[in-house]
TrEMBL record:
This is TetR/AcrR family transcriptional regulator. Keywords: DNA-binding, Transcription, Transcription regulation. Residues 28-87 form the HTH tetR-type domain. Residues 1-25 are annotated as: Disordered. PANTHER family: HTH-TYPE TRANSCRIPTIONAL REGULATOR BETI (PTHR30055:SF234), HTH-TYPE TRANSCRIPTIONAL REGULATOR RUTR (PTHR30055). It comes from Dactylosporangium maewongense. InterPro entries: DNA-bd_HTH_TetR-type_CS, Homeodomain-like_sf, HTH-type_TetR-like_transc_reg, HTH_TetR, Tet_transcr_reg_TetR-rel_C_sf, TetR_SbtR-like_C. Pfam families: TetR_C_43, TetR_N. It comes from the Bacteria. Residues 50-69 bind DNA.
Length: 206
């Protein structure tokens, strides 16, 4: 007969991973809230808003923000990366549709997102931070999805046959510059009009 007491580890061990998962889930939610708040404040109030103010508006402690984002540059980069990730998700959703013009929907979304956060992109440029280098997988995923949508548009005759994915990505980047030059960052209507003029150049010649 075994006189040793029964082991308790098996009964207690599930609690620790569950607690860790809860902690990680809370941390993810806090980080997400900080990113969304920072994105909104940067777009509406500029880059001068402090990390402590972002924490207050996000409803978290200053330590939470500083723990995730030790500097303004780190937060700029995280905001921009998060935007790219959202665009990847949207591109994946468009890929499940049969719309041959889904390419134009995706490009419009990309330009609108960039226009709303052109100040963040300017800050990254000033800090000599390139999102394609800092987050290469996200940038590559987005380009790949755009290329797939472009192939579909080509097959349907919805886009000029000579357009390449490099052309498309260059035009999106150029749209950001055009919107910034026109001072249209805070005018969705005007930035959308500029984007439409640029994207019309991708359509087949009549």
């Amino acid at each position: 007969m075994n006189s040793q007491p029964p082991k308790r580890a098996s009964a207690e061990s599930p609690a620790a991973p569950s607690g860790d998962r809860t902690l990680r889930a809370d941390a993810r939610r806090n980080r997400e809230q900080v990113l969304r708040t920072a994105q909104r404040l940067f777009a509406t109030e500029g880059l001068g808003v402090s990390l402590d103010e972002i924490a207050r508006r996000a409803g978290v402690g200053p330590g939470t923000v500083h723990r995730h984002f030790p500097s303004k540059e780190a937060l700029y980069l995280a905001v921009a990366t998060d935007e790219f990730e959202q665009l990847v998700v949207e591109a994946e959703e468009l890929a499940t549709t049969d719309d041959p013009a889904a390419l134009f929907t995706q490009l419009s979304r990309m330009i609108a997102t960039g226009a709303e956060n052109v100040t963040v992109k300017s800050a990254l440029e000033a800090a000599e931070l390139d999102l394609r280098t800092a987050a290469p997988k996200v940038a590559a995923d987005l380009t790949r999805h755009v290329a797939d949508l472009l192939d579909r548009a080509h097959a349907a005759g919805a886009v000029r046959p000579d357009v390449t994915v490099d052309d498309v990505m260059a035009l999106v980047a150029g749209a950001f510059s055009a919107i910034r030059h026109a001072g249209a960052e805070t005018s969705p209507e005007r930035s959308a009009r500029i984007a439409q003029i640029i994207l019309d150049g991708l359509r087949p010649r009549s």
